[in-house]
Amino acid sequence: MSAVLTQAAAHRLLSSVPLELRARVQWVCWRRETREGKPTKLPYNARTGTLASTTEQNTWSSFETALCACERGTYDGVGYVIAADDPYTGVDLDHCRDPLTGEIAPAPLAALQSFASYAEISPSSDVRSTSSRTPRA
User: Fold this and answer.
1) pLDDT tens for residues 58-100?
2) How many Å apart are CA 89 and CA 14, to the nearest integer?
3) Cα(128)–Cα(137) distance, rounded to whole angstroms?
């Protein structure tokens, strides 16, 4: 079983995620699992505890519901689902972070800083970013 998300960690998470993302009902819990020898995040429905789908809205929850489920200790974190009609864009920056120091390489760091975004570290220690209101082509 995963460690319980402490109140301090929950508060940091709550304060780090932009309000406009928290207001959307597009959240899932996730659990770190190993697939084919690599760490991955599997999405779970915060209300039912079953696997969630990135394409089925009925498996998503509010940020608060996902955070509460995570605080119970069953999950490792919460995640935002980027939908087809979403005004947000997600970017994965793979192999850009030094696993020992946590430092992000200059070019990817410049890319992250060039637009307003919420960024997080993935289980594989890569950087994931969700940018706010990015126009879609």
Assistant:
1) 999 999 999 999 888 889 888 889 888 888 877 777 788 887 8
2) 20
3) 21
